[in-house]
Write a structure and sequence with these properties.
alpha/beta; two-stranded antiparallel ribbon; single chain; TIM Barrel
């Protein structure tokens, strides 16, 4: 279990710049892949607010292989110049098809290909995808091998894992077999989430396991994940475990300011005030505009509701703002909610990291 959050230091934190293969990331606090969330608009907002690297929402290999160039599905592979470097995450069951999907991600322009062996959702596990692979190391390593063999050599391949299917000795042995085998095959980095697949999001992320893994692999690149809901959490994980970087997942939904806040803390500055309501309003409008340009005016309203609910956490009237965003159908209603609840430049709120950890709810 990770220790309590430590107070910000007045001294700069010496963080080693993150590099994945030949891709220079820089600041080692990045945005994770988030199913249903980390689309192009969310990634761009995160980049503009300090994230040096983001990963797209996980895509199925079968879907990618069959994907045709159509306007309605073009958003899946949409990348803009300003968001490089950007990673494409893939999930699947069968090695050859997985590799074919990875090739399609590389051709679309993603700078890194990330293999998902961490998703704990029942539907995914039932189809032999995601975290299911942690229980079958031979297949997992074949997926990695086929992907590495087929993706252009200049594009790094990374793997996302949980600490195992469960806490049995067999699961632990399988984890390290996949981990060591992945590096031997030539992956450039591995991300480890400190919970098991069985845990899903219940209970604490076991940060001490990340420390053990980092000591085991030495100089090879390891990123940590799990229970990163504040900027201080991000620096604490690096300091306590020795990982080379961290991937912020749920903590970045509705709070893209977490990246600039982490940069400030790393520079020895005090934690910046949460964004004021006018600052939030500007980003909320920008996010909706980007999404409308990508999805179209008819589709975007319903898609943006889930983001509005998350942004509402930073508002002093969370319940009122949440209720307004739940009903949004178009830009006019989005602006009406902003005019009602963001009309005065009041102080915003920092998210309650302890509440997130206690709830155990959320996405990958």
């Amino acid at each position: 279990m990770n220790t309590q959050q430590s107070p910000p230091s007045s001294n700069p934190v010496k963080l080693k710049p993150l590099k994945i293969g030949d891709v220079n990331i820089g600041f080692p606090v990045v945005q994770a892949a988030l199913s249903g969330y980390s689309d192009w608009p969310m990634r761009v907002i995160a980049r503009r607010l300090g994230a040096p690297y983001t990963i797209c929402e996980v895509m199925l290999d079968e879907f990618l292989v069959k994907l045709k160039e159509r306007k309605r599905t073009s958003h899946f592979l949409h990348i803009s110049d300003e968001e490089h470097p950007v990673g494409g995450q893939l999930m699947g069951a069968e090695p050859e098809q997985f590799a074919a999907g990875a090739v399609k991600l590389a051709a679309a322009g993603f700078d890194v290909i990330d293999i998902n062996f961490g998703c704990p959702v029942k539907k995914v596990l039932g189809r032999c995808r995601g975290g299911f692979h942690l229980g079958q190391p031979e297949t997992a390593l074949e997926v990695i091998q086929q992907t590495r063999d087929n993706v252009p050599a200049a594009i790094p391949v990374t793997v996302k894992m949980r600490r195992g299917v469960d806490d049995t000795q067999e699961s632990r042995d399988n984890f390290f077999k996949i981990l060591d085998g992945a590096y031997a095959i030539g992956v450039d980095a591995v991300t480890v989430h400190g919970r098991t697949v069985v845990q899903r999001y219940v209970g604490p992320s076991r940060w001490e396991f990340l420390k053990e893994v980092k000591q085991h692999i030495g100089d090879r690149i390891l990123l940590g994940s799990g229970d990163l809901f504040t900027a201080q959490d991000c620096l604490d994980m690096i300091a306590q475990t020795g990982v080379d970087g961290v991937t912020v997942a749920r903590g970045a939904i509705g709070n893209p300011w977490i990246f600039s806040q982490a940069r400030a803390l790393a520079d020895g500055q005090p934690l910046p005030d949460p964004p004021s309501l006018f600052e939030q309003k500007e980003i909320l409008l920008e996010h909706y505009s980007l999404a409308e340009g990508l999805y179209g005016a008819d589709r975007v309203g319903k898609l943006m509701r889930k983001f509005g609910i998350k942004y509402a956490v930073l508002h002093p009237d969370f319940n009122g703002v949440r209720s307004a965003f739940v009903k949004v159908k178009n830009m006019e209603q989005w602006k009406a909610a902003l005019d009602t609840f963001y009309a005065e430049d009041l102080p915003g709120c920092h998210p309650d990291g302890k509440m997130h950890k206690a709830s155990g709810s959320g996405n990958s």
